[in-house]
């Protein structure tokens, strides 16, 4: 479900039109059945939109729903008090599609060198990492808090709520399930107004910023010895991945709000963070919370002498979640080291601007490990960033010469727009502790709509996190 494609909005309107027609008929003949029609319609709408992506993605999702629900029901009915031993069966079954599609080639061919050619070109079904983690969390919360098992239809709506199924946020049982259990297709003006503002902002992030930034990366990605070009590529990618992923999350938030469902705000202006811990409290919030609650705290958290080991394990696993490759493992380990270093050597009196600058330096350095998948090339580029000779004037002139004609002005304007957007986010945090407040003012939204229409590339790009 690519929110940046007109096709998605066409399918959505078609689905809503069909549901409205069914509601009209049922409302005349059996008005007492409208609640069931609404919840069923929401479930079928989610499955239909996923089916429009491709059949495989829909089939894997339906299989995961059936395995999770009926596996959990068997545990609850037969041996709830001894549920832990059954989790060693159910959770691997839940995650089996994730291992096969995402990690089998890396582990079996890349690590063990077994040479299974059929695994080399597997396409990851969209949303796999997100909805499977959401279902695993649902199982653990249901058993840990001895919560009742909901009806199957409500579980389908929890696991497959269409705005967030493909790329999150990864919602928790206590937050989303009660809302889908009470769901009705009622159109509330306040919800529509608020939701549409998030949609506008999200589409601006994606179409005007992320997709345009992506077009400027290739010229700067070829050099392994020019630090100026490496850092330029890091900057462009760091901005692109933020506006791309946050853009999806904001549109999902807005669509949910239009339907009366309140999703978690998954990004809290992370590029305004002044230390790496604060960054991770603001970046992909629901995944960070998932790892905290289901991995870090069960390992003992920060309460044990092994806290540094716990941090490293969580971030290496987080890196593996993001992708099957040594570069992602290295990216996670690097962030883990940043966090351990912050706790061990945190300077208390750094000026705010310097603390922010050092934080962003580490974050953008680590982005190199995220987009450069060839590990030898990645290592060469990392070495160059610490080599003073790679910052020579000759290299600076070579980097500047990468762009010709009016390209430098266009790129500078785009980076200026991204910088202004970041500044408005920072001001929203500083003055009101409310991310994006200034960007969602009515007159600003009008400007964002105009900019989106003018700047949106003619070619649609899939959201980066569809690959995860």
Features:
468 residues, mainly alpha, 2 domains, 18 helices
Counting DSSP H or I runs of 4 or more residues, the number of helices is 18
Total strands: the figure is: 0
Give the assembly state of these chains: single chain
Helix content: 55-70%
Euclidean distance between termini CA atoms: 14 Å
Which term fits the overall shape?
globular
Low-confidence stretches: none
Content of β-strand: under 5%
Question: Which structural class should the secondary elements be placed in?
Answer: mainly alpha
The largest sheet, given as strand count, sense and whether it forms a barrel, is: none
Average residue pLDDT: 93
Describe this structure in words.
The chain is mainly α. It folds into two domains: 181 residues, no CATH class; 208 residues, no CATH class. The protein has 18 helices and no strands. α8 packs antiparallel against α9. The protein is globular, with a radius of gyration of 23 Å. It starts with 5 loop residues before the first helix and ends in a 13-residue tail after the last helix.
SSE topology sketch:
Blueprint: H1 6-29, H2 34-53, H3 55-79, H4 83-111, H5 128-144, H6 152-159, H7 173-181, H8 189-215, H9 227-258, H10 276-282, H11 285-296, H12 307-322, H13 326-345, H14 352-371, H15 375-385, H16 393-400, H17 407-432, H18 442-455
Helix pairs in contact: 1-2, 2-3, 2-6, 3-4, 3-5, 4-5, 6-7, 8-9, 8-18, 9-14, 11-12, 12-13, 13-14
Brief sketch in words of this structure:
The chain has 468 residues and is an all-alpha fold.
